Amino acid sequence: MDFKIKSFKELSTDELYAILQLRSEVFVVEQDCVYQDVDFKDQKSLHIFGYKNDKIVAYTRIFKPGDYFDNASIGRVVVASKERKYGYGHDLIKASLEGIKNYFKVDKITISAQKYLKKFYESHNFIQIGEEYLEDGIPHIRMDRE
Predict the structure, then answer these.
(1) The whole model's pTM is what?
(2) Would residue 125 count as lying in a domain?
(3) 55-63 β-sheet, strand order
(4) Which of 36, 38, 112 lies closest to 71 in space, CA to CA?
(5) Residue 135 contacts residue 112 (beta carbons within 8 Å)
(6) What is the CATH number of the domain that holds 94?
(7) DSSP state of 2
(8) Coil, strand or helix at 87
(9) Beta carbons within 10 angstroms of residue 66's beta carbon
(10) Please, which pLDDT band fits residue 90 given cuts at 50, 70 and 90?
(11) Structural domain of residue 78, as residue ranges?
């Protein structure tokens, strides 16, 4: 998996289209969740995406402290359904953690995680903070990493 990190303005139209298609495929269609994915937060985040055979199959966006939460943050974590069996989600989180460290020079990270992924994020040293809540009709939990 070849990962790239780009600002919104650095994304090509083809890259942006592929990213939005992947996010829609998983978050809207697969998870059957009607929500506003295009939220004007893409412009202030850095985009981390993984290529396999010239196709974007993994993606996150990262935020510096204060742009989403008080701490740095990772959001829109997504891997194409056919690619999940290869463990690319773990590679994607590692690339995101490295991106936060390299670009924002901080260690503290807060995420809003889908509850069913709690163990996945715990394997990357995130811990649950507070109670479960609904976000776009899906159970989520706040998780922090020091």
Answers:
(1) 0.94
(2) no
(3) 2-7, 46-52, 55-63, 72-79, 109-114, 138-145, 127-135
(4) 112
(5) yes
(6) 3.40.630.30
(7) E
(8) coil
(9) 10
(10) very high
(11) 2-106
